[in-house]
Write a structure and sequence with these properties.
This protein is an all-beta fold. The chain has one domain (9-85): Immunoglobulin-like, CATH 2.60.40. The protein has no helices and nine strands. It has strands at 9-20, 26-29, 33-37, 43-47, 53-59, 61-68, 79-80, 85-87, 92-101. A hairpin with a 5-residue loop joins strand 1 and strand 2 (26-29).
Amino acid sequence: MELALHAGTGSLTRTLEALGGPLPATQRTLSGTISLRNPAGTTFTITAGSDVTFSISVPADTYAVTGRSPLYQSAAVDCQTAGPVIVSVGGTSRAVVSCQER
C-alpha cells in the first residue's frame, strides 16, 4: 500500500529478504512487516504486499529500518538494512531489509 505523496515527503520501497544460509547461499524474498523509525522516535509501519515488496510515503528524514517475517525465526528477530536510510523530499529511496540466515 502506498500513501499519497505530500509536500515534504518521499518514498521508501524495496523488499524484505532472507540472505545467506548453508552453501550454496541463497536469497529469497519474505512476507512480513517493515518499520521505519526516525531520530525523533516516530515510527511508520507497513506490511510487505502479496508480491513481497513494500512502498511507503513518509516525511523526509533519516530512518532506521527493520523488518520481521513469520517465515524467519517466527517473527521473533528483527531484520535490518545495512545502515540508516535517508528519504529525501520528492525522492524514492530503496532499501533491502535483510534477515541473515546461518
